[in-house]
Structures are given as structure tokens and as C-alpha cells.
Amino acid sequence: MVRRLWARLLLLASLLAAASCSHSSPLPPTPTAPTTTGATAPAAAFTLVVDSRGSQEALIGLSEVTVDATASTGSALRYLVDFGDGSTVNEAVGHHVYNTAGTYRVTVTLTDVKGQTATSVRELVVASPLGAWLYSGYLSRTHAVEVRTLRLTDQQGATVRGTLSRARERDVIVTGTLTPDRQIRLVVDGLSETLEGTVPSVLTGGDAIWALTARGGFADGETFTFRAGVGEASSPPPDAVLKMRFFSFGAPFAVKGFSPVLFDGSTSRGDGLTYFIEFGDGETSIASNAVHPIANEGTYTARLTVVDRFGRSDFETAPFQVVSLITKGYYVEWDGQVVGDFGSGSVLLVDSQSGQNIAGRLYSQGVFGDTSCCFGHLFTGTLSGERDIKLVFADSSIVLAGTLYLGSPHRTLTFTIAGGPKSGRTLGFYYRDGY
Known about the structure:
Blueprint: H1 2-23, E1 47-50, E2 58-59, E3 65-68, E4 78-82, E5 88-89, E6 93-96, E7 102-111, E8 117-127, E9 131-139, E10 144-156, E11 159-166, E12 172-179, E13 183-188, E14 193-198, E15 209-215, E16 223-228, E17 243-246, E18 254-255, E19 260-264, E20 274-278, E21 284-285, E22 289-293, E23 298-307, E24 313-323, E25 330-333, E26 347-354, E27 357-363, H2 365-368, E28 377-384, E29 388-393, E30 399-405, E31 412-418, E32 426-432
Parallel strand pairs: 2-8, 18-24
Antiparallel strand pairs: 1-3, 3-6, 4-5, 4-7, 7-8, 9-10, 9-16, 10-11, 11-12, 12-13, 13-14, 14-15, 15-16, 17-19, 19-22, 20-21, 20-23, 23-24, 25-26, 25-32, 26-27, 27-28, 28-29, 29-30, 30-31, 31-32
């Protein structure tokens, strides 16, 4: 029995030793699931720049359009830039000049290493300077209103051709050259003149403004601000109507430095009129009517020019006279209104005028009770309203108040005397050139 027990113990010990040896060997690797990372989709972005000025619209045959898609994101990108007129490039940056006006869809398409794509699209307007361009304005150099229509009718590459029309003048040929940075130089036949400037950033839409400066000729140095024409006219041409009113004591002429003159062109007829009133003294207005005093005496010619929205114009002139109250002759007693004992030698002489104020001398035995009419009594006078005049004397309390009439056939002064020996009596004068 003891032997059996001993045998079992030996067997158990051998089994334990075998188990210990097997656990010291390395274990085979356990397989794991692979880790996958998804590729980021590309994003298309690009800038579109028109010529070196950054214009909004491209010029056909001239403006270099640059598409820059380098701001796009993605892995190992391939680029396709489509300019919308059949031209493409396979670069991140592309340059192109358009030869036909229109609106184009500029498209950038990206493809990454995984075959994923992205697209970005922008519209671009390509324009031409061809068409009618209208100008009307007052030229300081010539002291006159100038109305011009520039019609560009043909463009071949960087060369444009057309005509220039001026009011009441024959049309002349214009040939122009476009250069980078949108510069243009137009040669005007027959005027020894060129027009130079920059083509506007925007030409379409009807609101374009184009400034061109004249070099040479009668308008040298003047800048003409042309606006885009609005199409062909279907309405009658404009008709200028100039009316005038003189706020000068009922006169058909003005008193220098005092009389406001109304120049009224508001009854002129036409479609979308622009007004230019030349007062005749070098001053102007662009209102349909204006009130303006004239500083110096003389004969003047007012001129109204109206221009409709199609660039058609008409004008009307009106001559008028501006007088001074300073007498080259004298205001002499007017027999038809004199109360008989005033004598025949009463003379009123105006020496100076400043606006509504006058100053001078009155020679009149009857008014002052002088023994001689040859003593001049100094006065200051004030004009008011449209006809009123009042004279105050420095050496007397006598006042003459009355009306001034500057119409035809005579300029007349009619006074009522206040104070002195003839108070309440009437004294009348008319203007006679020389005494």
C-alpha cells in the first residue's frame, strides 16, 4: 500500500515539472482589426482679378484676367480653370484675355489624390467701350457751353474708331488706341486735339462715367466727363425757351449791381432736360431758372442751352441792357409835371451808385428857396421795392420821395416834396443825355 502511494506521488511530480516547462515558451500573436482614417474632401476657392487696376469688368482684347486658386485645400490637388469661353488651363494660377464681350462663368474644379472633386464658380462681365458717350457742360477756358457726343463704333484689338459730334458743328473722325491699365488716347481729326484718360472700371448698366482730358486745340486742359448714352431717341428734339424779367422799377432793362434779373428756361420742352444758363457776364447756372444781378453796365446777351437725355441740344439767346443810375447826362425838370414856379433850371445829378444806394446833387431854386439855382445840394438816395426812391439832403430837412421809371420813351423821376417852401408839391424829371 505504501508502495502504491509512493508511485502516485512520483507520477504527480513529473506531471508538474512538464507543465512548468511548457509555460516558459512565447505565446502566438493575437490578430487585431486595422485602423482606418477617412481622407478630407477638397475645398475650392479662388480670386479673380481684372487687370492691374482691379477693375470690375474686363475690356475685350486688353484686360488680363487672373484666376488664382492657390487658396484651395486638399491633398495632391489637380486643377482645372475654365474661363467660360472655351479656354482652360490646368494650373492653380491662370491668365486670360477675352476677345468677345459678354458675361462668362469662370469655374475652378479640383481633384484630389482620392479622386474627390470640388468646384467654385464666379461670373465675369467682359465689356467694350463701344457705344454713345454724351457730354454737356460749361468750359471755363472758352467761356461757353460745349455739347459733345462721342460714338465709338468699331474695335479691332487695341484700336477703336468712331466719330465726335459737337453742337452746330460737323462730325469728325476719332481714332483711339488702348494700352494696358485701361488707358486710352483718342485722336480727333480737324481739332488738333486728343482725348486721353482711363476706361471706367464698369462700362455696362447705363451709369458709367468716363472722364477724358483734351490735349491741344481750343479746349486744351479741359476735362470732359462723358456719361453712357441711353439708346436711340423716339421723342421730338428739345426746344429751348428763354424768358427774362427785370426787377428794376418796371424797366425793360436792369440797373447795374442792384436789379435782380430772372432768367427762366423752365418752359423749355424736351425729354430729361439738362439746363445751362449763361448770364452774359461770365457767370452761369445749371438750374432751369435763376435770379442773377449784373455788376456792370453795358449790353449783354443771355443764352439758354438745353440738352435732352439722348444728347440732343437746342439754344436760345436774348440781348439785354444794364444801365447805371450815375448820370452821363442829367435828370432835368420835366415840364409836363412841374408846378410852374420851380423855374426851368432844376437839375438832378447822380454821382455814384452802390447797389440800391445812390448819391448826388440837386440844383433847384424852387425846392430850397435859393436865390440861385447854381448851388448843388448834396443828397443820398435809397431805392426799394420795384419803383420807390427816396432822397435825403445833407444840408436840409427836405425829403423827396417818389418813383423811378426806367421805361420807354423816357427814364423819369417823380417826387413829392416833404418840407421846405414847396412841401406837398410834385417835382418831375426825365433823363436827357447831356445838359
